[in-house]
Every structure is written in C-alpha cells, then in structure tokens.
Amino acid sequence: MVGHLNLILRLVIWFLLTANFSVANIIIGVSIAFLLPGRPKTPEALKDWLRVLGEVIVAIPQAYIEAFEIMLRPHNHEEVTMERVKARRTPGLIFLDIFVITFTPKTIVLKYHEQGWYEVHRVRRRKKT
Q: Each residue of 65-92: pLDDT tens digit?
C-alpha cells in the first residue's frame, strides 16, 4: 500500500510542477513516476503517511494565520535552529516534513543534513524584556 503512496506522491509533484492535466501529460507523468529509481524497501507504516498528510492539512490554515500575523504585527527577529528528523523517516516522508515546515510563512528549511537534522530559518516577534 505504501509503495502506492510513493507513486501518488511522485504524480502529485509532477502535476504541481506542470499544472497540466492533458492526456499526454498524464501519460508522461505516470511514465516518469514508474521510471524514477526506487529505493530499497523499508517497512513504512500507513499511519506515518496519514499523520504527515494530517499535518499538511493543518498547515494550510496555519499558513493563512501566520501570513496575517506578519502583516499586522512586525516580525523582525530571525533565528536559525536545528530540528531533529523524526525516527524511521523515508525519503518521501522527509520530503513531506520539509514541505510542511516550508509551507508556512514564518519558517523555511535551509538544509537537510544526512545525519538526521533540518536547518530551519524562522522569523518571530522579538520578546519584550
């Protein structure tokens, strides 16, 4: 089942990049999704995929809220932090994690470190002291 999710993820990325749902583009997208090299099979839990997809759904209203906060109140403090990658993450799940972090206006992943860390840039309001 999860192999199907990887195929669907590849197709979704293809359609987001091309924004074209013609028959020819669908055939090209499916062909590319199957031709991309795979990876060694690792046990993935469907619940991990569902959890990340839930985070994506939650990130959409969160992005709007953060956008309004930035417009209404200045966010002039920046920081770069290192966040640990969750355990047992496959490349597809790592991609979705990076997408969720970067989707919101206040954060962006600057770099993924192979040792299991995300380098995250964040803007926030400075705390009054």
A: 999 999 998 888 999 999 998 887 777 7
Residue spans per domain, the chain: 62-129
**Burial of residue 34 (number of CB atoms within 10 Å: 0-12, 13-18, 19+):** exposed
Tell me the chain's radius of gyration from C-alpha atoms.
18
User: Which pTM value belongs to this model?
Assistant: 0.66
Which pLDDT tens digit goes with each residue over 89-127? 777 788 888 888 988 899 999 999 989 899 999 998 877
CA pair distance 67, 84, nearest whole angstrom: 25
Q: Which two tokens stand for residue 127?
A: 């705390």
- Under DSSP, the state recorded for 95 is H
CA distance 21 to 39: 28
**Tokens linked to 95:** 């991609």
Backbone angles phi, psi at 16, to 5 degrees: -65, -35
Distance CA 58, CA 73 (A): 22
